C-alpha cells in the first residue's frame, strides 16, 4: 500500500512539473502577445492586428504613378476667376515682407580653468497670434510640429531643457541660460484652458515624442505649481499660478537622440550656418551639455502694439581642457567641433560669432586669430563684457580660404575670474536608512549688499519632510524667511513644494536644513536599479542680484541674443537663476525575490501544520507487532536454509 | 470479544473516514468557491451573440431611382399603366468564406410626365448643362438617390453619339433607344429601360467593384487583376479625419527665394472641395516650407533634352530622406496626406519626370498610393540673363493646385473608372466634385466603415474570449455595445437607402469600436497570467490536496473491498 501511495504521489509530482513547464511556455507567448498589443496600441498604426496582416502586401505593392491632369478640374477652377488672369510665374519686383525672422549666434568664452564655453542661440520670431481663435496653419521658418503643439494645447510659454552634466558656477561663472541636470519643463498655459492637468499630461506625452525623451514620466507625483519662482518671461502679467506647471526629471540621460530632433527644428537644419558645428560625437564628449527650447510671446515694438512669438533654441557646451585638447591650451573651431564654418544660414537675417575678450584687453592672456576689427560691448549678467564679433553674413569674414576656423591660443594661465555673486549647493546629511537631513547652502559673495532670493524645493513624496525642523541660518544667526509657501505631499499623488523668500546678508553663507524620513515603497514602485538610489531634483534659487553696471532695460532694442534672454525691469539689478546639484538618496530596498520566498515559506508552514492535524484526525492508531530485528531475520533465513524452525 | 475487537477498529476507521470526508467537503464547498470568488477578474457583459450576427456582414444597399418619362416617350395610355414602384434585387456574394453578402436593392419609381414640360422646353433649346441645373432645382433629390429622365430618341438635347448624360447633381438624361419607338408595349419599353437604368446606377452610385474594393480588407482579391488592385489601394482608407499637409521643398535657399501664396490658394482651390466633402470626414490643412530638403536620388542628365530626368523606377526612392523631415502631426493621429512641391536646385534644373515609356510626364508630378503626391516645379526659365542669386520667385499657385487637386481627388477615392461608351459626364463644377460622385464615395465609405468596425469588434470579442485574464471594465462594455448599436443602425439605414445617416452611424461605430479596442485598461492584467498564479499556489495547494485525495482514494478502495467481502459472505 505504501509503495502504491508513493508511486501515486510521484505521478502527481511529475504532473505538476509538467504543468509548470507548459506554464512557462505559455507565459512566454502571452508576454509576447502583450508586447504586440502595446505596439499596436497607437491607433494611428493600424486598426487591429487582423488589419495589419492584410495590409502587409499593400506596402509591398506600393506603386508610384504619374499624375494625369487631363481632367478639366483645375482649368475649371481657374476659369472661375477668369476675370483676373493669373499671372505667369514672374521674377518678383516687389517681394512680400516675410513676417518671420531668423537669427543665429555663437558665443565663445574662454574660461579660466582652460576649458572653453560655447553657447549657441537660434531665434525665430514670427509675427502671428496663436492665442486668438484663428487657426495658424501655414509655417515658413517656425517649425510646424511646435506650432501645432502651441495652438492645440493653448500654451502661452514653454521652456524645456535637456542637460547632461552639472554647471560648475564657481569655476565657470554664470551661464547665459541656466539649466538643471536632466530634463526640465515648465509651461504657462493660457487662461482659456479649463482642465490644466489633463492638458499638461497630454502635452508632456506629445513633447516626449517630439524630443525623443522620457518626458512621459512626468505625472502628478513630480509636477508642482510654484507660486513665485517661475514668472512668465514673455509679455502678459499672468500671475495666477494655476496655469503654471513645473517638472524636472533629474535622471534623464541626454544624448544624440535628443539632439537630432532639436536640430530638425532649425530652418536650415544642420546643413548650413552655425548648426553645421553641432556634431554629436564632439558635443557629447564634453563636461557639460545643455540644449533648450524656449517659446514665448514677445513685444514687437516699444509700445507693444503687435505681438510675435519667439522660439529660442539654445545649446550650451563646455569643452574640457584635458579630454578634448590633450592638455594643450589651444582651441580652434575645428578642434572643438571637427568642422569649420563656410557660410551663414541663407535664411538668417543675422549670423554672428562673439568671442569674450573682456579679460584679455591687450591680448596678454590669449590670442585670437584671425583678428577682427569688430568689437561689441554688452552688459550681461551684471557685468560689461567686450566681445570680438565675426559677422558670417559678410563674405570678408571667411577670407581667401573661404572657411572660418577661429583659433584661441593661451599665453598665460594666470588671471582671476570675477567671482559670481550668487551660488548654491546642496547635500544630504545623516546616516542609516530611516532619516536624513537636506542641507541647502546659498552663498552671497557681494561685499556689502544684501539681496533677497527665492528658493524653490520640490521633493518627492517618498522623502517625508518634517517641516517643523526647517531652519534657516546665516552667519550663525537665525534668518527668518519673509515668505514661505509650503504644500505638503500626498503619498503617490503629489510632491512636497517648499518655496521661501530669504534675505541673504552680504558676504555670507545661508544654510537651509530640513529633516526627512524615508518612506517604504511598494515593491512595484521601485526603479529597475533601486540600489542606485533615487534622484531628487535640483533646488532653484532665483534672485535679482544687484548689478555693478547699468543693465539695459529696453527689451525691443537690437541686442546680442545671449544678453536678451531674461527681461530686465530695472537698471540696478539683473535676474539670475541658480540650480543646485540634484540629490541621490538611498531608500530602504528589499530583496525582490522575497515575496515568493515568503509565500513558499508560509505555505510550507501551513502545509506542515495542516498535514499533522489531518493525520491526527483521519488516521487510526493501533499497536503493531514490533518488527523482528535485522539479526533475527538473518538468523531466521539461515535457519530456514538449514530446515530448522525459525525463532 | 472477538466481535468487539472486530468492531472497535472499524469504528475508529469510520471516524477517520468521516473526518476526511468532512474536510474534503469543507475544502470543496467553502475553500474552492472562496478562492474562485476572490481571484476572479471583473468582466462586464458583452453582446456576444449580436457581434457574431454582425460578423456575417450581410449588407443590403438600396438606392432610390426615379425614372421620369418626358413627353414623346410614352403614350398617355401607357402612362396610366406605368407601375408606381418596381423593386429589383441583385445579390452578390463577395466572399464565400467570410459569408459577406452584398445585396443591391434598386427601388425604381416610375413617374409620369410631371416635369416633362420643363424638359421639353430645354429639348427645344438643346442645352444639356442648363437642363441639368434646372431639373435639379425642380426636384431636390435626397442624398443617395437618383433621378433618370427618359427623353425621346429624336431629342436634340444630347449630341448624336451620346446616349446618357450624367449631370453634376443627382440627375441623368437617358435617350431612349431606337428599337423602342412609341407604340411598343409598355412591358417592352420597361424591359428595355431596365438594364440601361442599371448601368446609369452603376456609374452614379455604386457598382459591384466599388463595394468589393471597399471590402478589400476582408476579402482576398483575386491575384490576377493587378490593375484593379492598384486602383483599390490608391485611395486612403476611410478615417474620421485627414490631415492635409502642403510642403514646399527648397533644397537650395541660396539661389531661390520662393514665395507661395498657399493661404490664398487653399482658400480658392482646396476649401470648396473640402467643404463639399465635409459630411465624409474632418479635414485640416497646414503647410510648411522645408529648406535643404533633398530628394533621395540623383537625377540623371539627359543631354538630348539638356535637362535632368527622374525615371519612374527611381521614384520609389525619392521620398525616404524627405519623409524624415516632413514630420507627422504631433497633435492628432489621423492619416496625413502629403503634397510636396519640389523646386530643384539651380544645378539640377530643369528636372523632368519620365514615365514607364521614357516619356516626359506633362504635369511633372506623380503620386504615391495612400501617401500623397509630389510635383516638380522648374524655375530655371526665370533666372534671366543677369541671374543675380538669390532669385525671388513667385510660384504660380493655379498650376500647382491644379495638380494637387487632381491628386487629392485620387487619394480620397473620388475619381473612379472611366464611364462606359456613349456616356457623357458633365464637367466638374467649381467645387471640384459632383453630387453623385460624393454619393458614390459615401456609399463605398459607409460599406468600408461598417466592414472595418465589424472586424474590430469581432476581433476584440475573440481576443476577450481567448484571454480570460483581461479585465473588461464597464466603459469598454459600453463602448462595445454602442458600437454594435451604431453598426446595426448603419446597416438598417443602408437597407432603407438613407445614405447620410448610414455614413453618420458607421463613423460613430468606427470611433466607438476603436476606442474600445485600444483602451489601455485592456492591457493591465495581461502580464499576470494563470501559470504565474499557479506557480504561487502550488506550494499551498499541493501539500493540502494530496492527503485529501489519498484518503478519499483509500475510502473508495476500502468500500470496494468491503463489498467484495460481503459478496463472498453471501456466496
Automatic annotation (TrEMBL), chain A:
Residues 41-56 have a biased composition (Polar residues). It comes from the Eukaryota. GO terms for cellular component: GPI-anchor transamidase complex. GO terms for biological process: attachment of GPI anchor to protein. Residues 31-86 are annotated as: Disordered. Residues 1-26 form the signal peptide. InterPro entries: PIG-T. The keyword Flavoprotein does not apply. Pfam families: Gpi16 (PF04113). Keywords: Signal. The keyword Signal applies. This is Phosphatidylinositol glycan anchor biosynthesis class T. The lineage of its organism: Eukaryota, Metazoa, Chordata, Craniata, Vertebrata. The gene is PIGT.
Automatic annotation (TrEMBL), chain B:
It is a multi-pass membrane protein. The chain crosses the membrane at residues 18-36, 534-556. Pathway: Glycolipid biosynthesis; glycosylphosphatidylinositol-anchor biosynthesis. One of its GO terms (cellular component) is GPI-anchor transamidase complex. It is found in: Endoplasmic reticulum membrane. Its main location: endoplasmic reticulum. It comes from the Eukaryota. The keyword Transmembrane applies. The keyword Glycoprotein applies. Keywords: Endoplasmic reticulum, Glycoprotein, GPI-anchor biosynthesis, Membrane, Transmembrane, Transmembrane helix. One of its GO terms (biological process) is GPI anchor biosynthetic process. InterPro entries: PtdIno-glycan_biosynth_class_S. Belongs to the PIGS family. This is Phosphatidylinositol glycan anchor biosynthesis, class S. It comes from Sparus aurata (Gilthead sea bream).
Amino acid at each position: 500500500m505504501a509503495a502504491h501511495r508513493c508511486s501515486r504521489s510521484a505521478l502527481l509530482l511529475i504532473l505538476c512539473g509538467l504543468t509548470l513547464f507548459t506554464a512557462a511556455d505559455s507565459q512566454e507567448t502571452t508576454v509576447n502577445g502583450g508586447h504586440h498589443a502595446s505596439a499596436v496600441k497607437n491607433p494611428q498604426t493600424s486598426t487591429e492586428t487582423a488589419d495589419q496582416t492584410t495590409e502587409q502586401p499593400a506596402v509591398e505593392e506600393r506603386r508610384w504613378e504619374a499624375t494625369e491632369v487631363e481632367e478639366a478640374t483645375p482649368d475649371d477652377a481657374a476659369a472661375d476667376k477668369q476675370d483676373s488672369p493669373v499671372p505667369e510665374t514672374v521674377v518678383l519686383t516687389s517681394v512680400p515682407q516675410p513676417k518671420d525672422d531668423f537669427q543665429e549666434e555663437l558665443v565663445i568664452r574662454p574660461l579660466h580653468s582652460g576649458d572653453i564655453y560655447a553657447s549657441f542661440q537660434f531665434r525665430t520670431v514670427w509675427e502671428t497670434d496663436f492665442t486668438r481663435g484663428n487657426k495658424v496653419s501655414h509655417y515658413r521658418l517656425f517649425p510646424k510640429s511646435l506650432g501645432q503643439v502651441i495652438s492645440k494645447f493653448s500654451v502661452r510659454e514653454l521652456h524645456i531643457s535637456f542637460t547632461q552634466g552639472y554647471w560648475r558656477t564657481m569655476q565657470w561663472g554664470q551661464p547665459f541660460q541656466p539649466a538643471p541636470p536632466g530634463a526640465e519643463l515648465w509651461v504657462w498655459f493660457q487662461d482659456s484652458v479649463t482642465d490644466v492637468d489633463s492638458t499638461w499630461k497630454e502635452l508632456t506625452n506629445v513633447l516626449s515624442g517630439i524630443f525623443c525623451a522620457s518626458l512621459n514620466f512626468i505625472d502628478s507625483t513630480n509636477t508642482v505649481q510654484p507660486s513665485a519662482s517661475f514668472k512668465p518671461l514673455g509679455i502678459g502679467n499672468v500671475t495666477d499660478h494655476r496655469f503654471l506647471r513645473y517638472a524636472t526629471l533629474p535622471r534623464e540621460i541626454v544624448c544624440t537622440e535628443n539632439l537630432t530632433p532639436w536640430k530638425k527644428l532649425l530652418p536650415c537644419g544642420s546643413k548650413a550656418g552655425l548648426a553645421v558645428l553641432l556634431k554629436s560625437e564632439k558635443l557629447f564628449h564634453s563636461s557639460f551639455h545643455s540644449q533648450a527650447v524656449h517659446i514665448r510671446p514677445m513685444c514687437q515694438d516699444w509700445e507693444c502694439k503687435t505681438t510675435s512669438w519667439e522660439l529660442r533654441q539654445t545649446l550650451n557646451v563646455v569643452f574640457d581642457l584635458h579630454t578634448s585638447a590633450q592638455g594643450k591650451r589651444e582651441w580652434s573651431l575645428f578642434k572643438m567641433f571637427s568642422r569649420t564654418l563656410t557660410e551663414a544660414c541663407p535664411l538668417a537675417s543675422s549670423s554672428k560669432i562673439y568671442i569674450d575678450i573682456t579679460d584679455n584687453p591687450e591680448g596678454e592672456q590669449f590670442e585670437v586669430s584671425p583678428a577682427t576689427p569688430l568689437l561689441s560691448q554688452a552688459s550681461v549678467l551684471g557685468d560689461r563684457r567686450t566681445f570680438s564679433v565675426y559677422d558670417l553674413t559678410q563674405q570678408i569674414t571667411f577670407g581667401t580660404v573661404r572657411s572660418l576656423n577661429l583659433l584661441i591660443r593661451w599665453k598665460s594661465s594666470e588671471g582671476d575670474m570675477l567671482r559670481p555673486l550668487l551660488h548654491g549647493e546642496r547635500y544630504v546629511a545623516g546616516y542609516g536608512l530611516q532619516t536624513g537631513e537636506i542641507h541647502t547652502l546659498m552663498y552671497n559673495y557681494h561685499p556689502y549688499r544684501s539681496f533677497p532670493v527665492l528658493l524653490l524645493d520640490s521633493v518627492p513624496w517618498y522623502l517625508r519632510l518634517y517641516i517643523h525642523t526647517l531652519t534657516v541660518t546665516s552667519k550663525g544667526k537665525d534668518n527668518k524667511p519673509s515668505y514661505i509657501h509650503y504644500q505638503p505631499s500626498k503619498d503617490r499623488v503629489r510632491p512636497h513644494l517648499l518655496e521661501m523668500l530669504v534675505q541673504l546678508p552680504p558676504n555670507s553663507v545661508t544654510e537651509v536644513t530640513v529633516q526627512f524620513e524615508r518612506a517604504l515603497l511598494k515593491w512595484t514602485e521601485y526603479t529597475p536599479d533601486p540600489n542606485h538610489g533615487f534622484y531628487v531634483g535640483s533646488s532653484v534659487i532665483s534672485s535679482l542680484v544687484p548689478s555693478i553696471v547699468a543693465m539695459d532695460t529696453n527689451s525691443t532694442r537690437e541686442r546680442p541674443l545671449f544678453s536678451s534672454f531674461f527681461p530686465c525691469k530695472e537698471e540696478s539689478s539683473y535676474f539670475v537663476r541658480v540650480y543646485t546639484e540634484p540629490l541621490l538618496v538611498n531608500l530602504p530596498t528589499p530583496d525582490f525575490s522575497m515575496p515568493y520566498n515568503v509565500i513558499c515559506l508560509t505555505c510550507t508552514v501551513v502545509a506542515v501544520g495542516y498535514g499533522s492535524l489531518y493525520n491526527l484526525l483521519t488516521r487510526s492508531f493501533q499497536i503493531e507487532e514490533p518488527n523482528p530485528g535485522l539479526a533475527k531475520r538473518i538468523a531466521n533465513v539461515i535457519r530456514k536454509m538449514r530446515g530448522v524452525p525459525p525463532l | 470479544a472477538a466481535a468487539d475487537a472486530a468492531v472497535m477498529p472499524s469504528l475508529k476507521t469510520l471516524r477517520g473516514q468521516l473526518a476526511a470526508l468532512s474536510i474534503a467537503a469543507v475544502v470543496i464547498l467553502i475553500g474552492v468557491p472562496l478562492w474562485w470568488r476572490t481571484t476572479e477578474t471583473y468582466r462586464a457583459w458583452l453582446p456576444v451573440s449580436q457581434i457574431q450576427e454582425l460578423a456575417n456582414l450581410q449588407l443590403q444597399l438600396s438606392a432610390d431611382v426615379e425614372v421620369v418619362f418626358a413627353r414623346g416617350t410614352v403614350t398617355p395610355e401607357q402612362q396610366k399603366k406605368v407601375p408606381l414602384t418596381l423593386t429589383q434585387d441583385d445579390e452578390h456574394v463577395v466572399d464565400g468564406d467570410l459569408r459577406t453578402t452584398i445585396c443591391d436593392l434598386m427601388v425604381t419609381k416610375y413617374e409620369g410626365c410631371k416635369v416633362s414640360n420643363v424638359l421639353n422646353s430645354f429639348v427645344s433649346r438643346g442645352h444639356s448643362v442648363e437642363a441639368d441645373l434646372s431639373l435639379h432645382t425642380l426636384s431636390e433629390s435626397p442624398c443617395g438617390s437618383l433621378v433618370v429622365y427618359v427623353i425621346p430618341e429624336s431629342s436634340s438635347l444630347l449630341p448624336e453619339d451620346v446616349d446618357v448624360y450624367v449631370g453634376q447633381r443627382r440627375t441623368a438624361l437617358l435617350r431612349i433607344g431606337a428599337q423602342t419607338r412609341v407604340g411598343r408595349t409598355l412591358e417592352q419599353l420597361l424591359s428595355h429601360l431596365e438594364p440601361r437604368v442599371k448601368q446609369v446606377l452603376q456609374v452614379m452610385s455604386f457598382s459591384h467593384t466599388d463595394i468589393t474594393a471597399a471590402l478589400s480588407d476582408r476579402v482576398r482579391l483575386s491575384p490576377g487583376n493587378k490593375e484593379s488592385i492598384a486602383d483599390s489601394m490608391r485611395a486612403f482608407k476611410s478615417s474620421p479625419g485627414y490631415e492635409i499637409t502642403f510642403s514646399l521643398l527648397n533644397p537650395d535657399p541660396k539661389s531661390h527665394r520662393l514665395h507661395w501664396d498657399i493661404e490664398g490658394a487653399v482658400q480658392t482651390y482646396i476649401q470648396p472641395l473640402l467643404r463639399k466633402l465635409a459630411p465624409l470626414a474632418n479635414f485640416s490643412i497646414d503647410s510648411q516650407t522645408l529648406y535643404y530638403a533633398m530628394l533621395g536620388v540623383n537625377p540623371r542628365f539627359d543631354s538630348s533634352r539638356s535637362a535632368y530626368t527622374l525615371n519612374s523606377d527611381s521614384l520609389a526612392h525619392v521620398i525616404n530622406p524627405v519623409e524624415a523631415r516632413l514630420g507627422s502631426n504631433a497633435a492628432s493621429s489621423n492619416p496625413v496626406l502629403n503634397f510636396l512641391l519640389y523646386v530643384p536646385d539651380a544645378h539640377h534644373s530643369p528636372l523632368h519626370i519620365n514615365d514607364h515609356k521614357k516619356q516626359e510626364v506633362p504635369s511633372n508630378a506623380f503620386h504615391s498610393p495612400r501617401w500623397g503626391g509630389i510635383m516638380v516645379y522648374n524655375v530655371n526659365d526665370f533666372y534671366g540673363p543677369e541671374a543675380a542669386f538669390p532669385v525671388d520667385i513667385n510660384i504660380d499657385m493655379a498650376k500647382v493646385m491644379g495638380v494637387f487637386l487632381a491628386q487629392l481627388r485620387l487619394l480620397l477615392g473620388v475619381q473612379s473608372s472611366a464611364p462606359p461608351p456613349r456616356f457623357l459626364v458633365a464637367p466638374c463644377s467649381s467645387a471640384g466634385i459632383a453630387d453623385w460622385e460624393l454619393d458614390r464615395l459615401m456609399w463605398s465609405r459607409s460599406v468600408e466603415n461598417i466592414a472595418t468596425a465589424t472586424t474590430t469588434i469581432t476581433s476584440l470579442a475573440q481576443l476577450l474570449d481567448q484571454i480570460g485574464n483581461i479585465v473588461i471594465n464597464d466603459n469598454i462594455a459600453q463602448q462595445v455595445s454602442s458600437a454594435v448599436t451604431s453598426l446595426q443602425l448603419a446597416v438598417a439605414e443602408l437597407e432603407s437607402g438613407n445614405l447620410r445617416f448610414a455614413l453618420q452611424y458607421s463613423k460613430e461605430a468606427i470611433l466607438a469600436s476603436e476606442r474600445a479596442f485600444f483602451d489601455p485598461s485592456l492591457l493591465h492584467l495581461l502580464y499576470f497570467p494563470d501559470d504565474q498564479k499557479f506557480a504561487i499556489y502550488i506550494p499551498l495547494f499541493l501539500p493540502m490536496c494530496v492527503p485529501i485525495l489519498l484518503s478519499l482514494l483509500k475510502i473508495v478502495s476500502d468500500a470496494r473491498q468491503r463489498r467484495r467481502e460481503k459478496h463472498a459472505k453471501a456466496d
